[in-house]
Amino acid sequence: MRGYLWSSNANVVRVEDGGESPSVCRVNDVPTAHRNAVVMTDVVAMTGGFPALAGIDIQVAEGEIVLLAGPNGAGKTTVLRVCAGIQPIARGSVSVLGFDLRTDLAHIRSNVGFVGHRNGLYEDLTPAENLDFWAKVIGASPDEVDAAIDVMALNARVRDTPVSRLSAGQRRRVALAVLVIRRARLWLLDEPHAGLDASGRDELDGILRRAAASGATVVLASHELERATALATRRITISGGVIDGGDRNG
Amino acid sequence: MTTITPTTKSSHRGTGTTATRVIGLLATVMCAWLVVFGLILSPADRDQGDAVRIMYVHVPSVWLAYLAFIVTAAGSAIHLFGRRHSLQADRVAGASAEIGVVFMGVTLVSGMLWGRITWGVYWQWDARLTTTALLFVSYIGYLAVRNLDGTREQLARRSAIVGLLAVLEIPLVHWSVKLWRSLHQEATVLGTDLDVSLDGLMLFSLFVGVVAFTLVFVWLLLHRARTMAVVDLAAQRRLDDALIARRREGGN
Amino acid sequence: MANQRRRLALSVARKDLRIERRSHVLTAQILPFTLVTMVLFAFALDATSVLQRVAPGLVWLAVLFSMMIVVQRAFAVETADGALDALRSAGADMSGVFFGKFIALVVQLIIVEGALWIAAVLLYGIELRLGGIVLLVTSSISATCGLAAIGTIYGGLASGIQGRESLLPLLVLPVASPVLIGATRSAEAAFGIGGTVASEGWPWLGLLTVFAVAFVVVGSFAFGPLVDD
Prior knowledge:
By secondary structure, chain A is an alpha/beta fold. Chain A contains nine helices and eleven strands.
């Protein structure tokens, strides 16, 4: 049973007002009928009493791979957390995949995949057990888990070693494997390249390109500018909690 | 976003209005009355002597403490289940809990002093007293939750839930303590608790006390809730400044 | 939906118990801690007759204190590497998560209680009557469910906030007091301490059951908004 059962409902609504072909988005069997994956309008979001986002406007179209760039503390992580539906906003409005953040949080969460600074893994469990748990939470099948393990090249030894004894890069691979089984329509990644070795980065880029090719949207924050710019279709630079200058096509 | 309408005219600084001034004046008069009736006009009790005068503070503060917690519960429920998730209701809940904790402290201290004189001990494991003590701690916990980090809405929602959980706790705690004491304690000592034979003047003094304390409560509640509104307003203003400063960080 | 929630709850419970089995925190740290407390109680109270009289209360006090550690640990594994955020962003049904953590907590507390009762029998020399077994078991289960429910509710509340671990005992202990009273009295009745008979324990079982049901029901609704806001 998939975690986004209710999307069948949204399906009907979207098809009615939609113009685009449903085949564009195969990721979640929900047709794409709206142009924008993310619309943030004048968003203010607080982290610990500090306005991390100071009235930011962002638009991301479906199928784009967008790089969020900017100095440390610019607000990139907060943008991703807001889109993932785990950070409340104080002002402004956010629409993700056509759903309003304030009223339709459940729909947003069921269609969004997020990997933050932290991996969201249980240290005492092995990657296999972690994947098994997350597959149950998400509602993914064992086959999908196996496929994700292949994609992230997690060998048998790594799979059965407790996460606490894995290197940072290996943990990252496990976290990305969890992201893969989510089969999200919007992928949100915070510094996904951090800790990965060269082959891991290549695998990650491959996954993101394939996801975008199949209709998903990718937003990533990265300091690996060269690699990320090559991957991204567009770059948005943030500083001081707002967009820095104009958007630049990359 | 909740808009806060200023409750005072611009010419005037403070949280007072005509209504609060009238209430404040009445409260002062009633408190003065309470002193006159409680300490001078009302007679000493046949058994308890002058110790009975503690009742004129103790009973009104118990009443008030529980009234305050009912108000907190009501405010929490209105915030949580109301369609607008009113922050005003949250402020009233918080203000009321603060006042309630103070009056509960007065209740405990005055009760212990009275107990020392009447029972010979400061503390009796009586159902009412024990329930009150546990509630006192619970509401201190509630106030701690109100002071945690988070956005204004997060704090309001969390405190509302904790405020309602504390209400759920009252009957369970009372039931358990009552059951406990009824099994283990001879009731003779406790029988003397409040069953003093009150003559007319004593009863009237008690009544004056209840009215006086209730007025004090209303007066404090209005001022405190308004102060909290001003604090929220100031936080919004500060946010505007912080936003400008934040944008400037990036040279925008 | 109910089916899905049950499956999520079982997954969470199984995951939590597996983590405990793997990390040995319960067996290598919490159980020894509780047993040391039992020995310390004996030092503090000295006389065997006193110990026998108050043994049930000491056992349940030890349960209460160890629960603080178990609860903190149960939520530390969720927040250490952002798993709670991942659960939220995956849209996991929070009342399912509540029941999962609740079940895992109940299982761990029952293990602690078993060890403590054995310690009480061995160290303090109390004797369980045959007629008291049913009362002891049923009241312990009810009490444990009540404690686990409030532990999960307030543990969830405290988990989202860094550096506020000390808030947990302040919130939990006053609420837990009816359980402490009820569980202690019914255990006294089960063991026949202080000339009590087993039938004196049944009203307490009623109280414990009402408490457990009330907080489990409320917790399943309150947990989501407390954790996920």
